[in-house]
Amino acid sequence: MNLADYQPRSMLHVPEHHVARPAFPALDFHTHLAWSSADGSAPPKYLGDAQELLTVMDRKNVSALVHLTGGYGAHLDACIRDLQQAHAGRFYVFAEPMWNRASEPSYEANQAAEIERAARVGARGLKVLKTLGLFLREQGRLVRVDDPRFDPMWETCGALGWPVAIHVSDPEAFFLPIDRFNERYEELHNHPDWSFCGRDFPGDRELQESRNRVMARHPRTQFVVLHVGNNAENLAYVSECLDRFPNMTVDIAARIGELGRQPREAKRFIDRYQDRVLFGTDAVPNGHEFPQQLFCDELYEIYYRLLETEDEYFDYAPAPVPPQGRWRIYGLGLSRDVLRKVYYENAARLLRL
C-alpha cells in the first residue's frame, strides 16, 4: 500500500461535540472569493456565487466575509460593486498593491494615489501576499519586504486607518529540505513549488525580521500578520513580536492544524492576546486545489469545534488527512468572553464597523 492511501481511523473512544453554529456571530477576516489580475484590468472571475455563499454564511452564523484579494483598478472596483455594495454588511473588500508597476520611477506616488482612490470607492484595507519577499523580482533579484520604496504605501494605509493584512512567510518546514525528516513531506511532495528551500530564497526568520522592520518604521499603521503571525509553530516568537509591536495583530486562518496540536500553549497565547487575535479561515469557494480551505459548512464547524470545545484528537480539515501534516488536533475550550472578541469584536474594531 502506498503511504498516500493510508488513512488510519482512530480507535479512541472520547467525547465528540458537533458545533453547528458559533457561540457568537463570526466575522471571517480571511477569505479569497476571486483571484486578482496582474494588471488590474481583467474583470473578477468569482469562485462562488454570492447567494450560495450567503446561504452557507447564514447556516453557520457568519455575519460577514472579508475578501482579501480584491486587486486594484477596475478589478477592485468590480469586486466592491458586486460584493460589498450589492450585499451591504456581508462582504468587505481589500485592495492589493500594483506589483507589476513596482519598477516604474513614479511607483511610490502612484501606489499611494491608488490606495487613496481605492479608499474613496470603498475598499477597507490592503492585502500583501507573499509576492513581496518570495516572488517579486527586479533584474532577477528578489525584492525585500522592507524595501523603502513601499514606505509611502504603508504610511498611506496608516493615515487612512486601513489595516494591512500581510503574509510574508510560510510554515517553517517549507524552508527545509524535502526529506524524511520534514514533517510536511507529503504536502511538499504533492506541491514541490511550495518549497522555498535553497536557491536564492531568504530564510523564514529573515523574512519575518524584514517585516518587523516595516512595522517598527510605521507605528501608525495596523498590520494584521496572517496565519498566526506567519509562525504558528513558534508561538513564543510570535508573542515576542506582539510584545514589541503594538501595531501588530494576528489571525488564525489555515493554521488550526498548528494551534490544535499544541492546545495548552495555544490557549494561553489566545487568552493573553485576546484583543489582538482575529477569526479567519482562508476559505476558498470551489478551491479544490486547497482542500483544507474549501469554503463549506464542515470547514466552519471544525474551527468552531477547535475554539469552543475540549474535544480530543480530531481532524483539522474537511479533506482526508494529511492535507498539511499527518497529525490531529485538540480543542482549546476558550471562554465566552474571549470567543466574543476573537469571533467578531476585534475584526469589527479594525474595520471600524
Notes on the structure:
The chain has 13 helices and ten strands. The protein has 353 residues and is an alpha/beta fold. The protein has a single domain (3-351), classed as Metal-dependent hydrolases (TIM Barrel, Alpha-Beta Barrel). The strands form three sheets. It has a five-stranded parallel β-sheet, with helices on both faces. It is globular.
Shape: globular
Contiguous low-pLDDT stretches (5 residues minimum) are: none
The overall strand count is 10
Widest sheet: strand order?
4-7-8-9-10
CATH class: Alpha Beta
Task: List its salient traits.
353 residues, alpha/beta, TIM Barrel, five-stranded parallel beta sheet, three-stranded parallel beta sheet, 13 helices, 37% helix, 10% strand, globular
Could you give a quick summary of the protein structure above?
By secondary structure, this protein is of the alpha/beta class. The protein is 37% helix and 10% strand. The chain has a single domain (3-351), classed as Alpha-Beta Barrel (TIM Barrel), CATH 3.20.20.
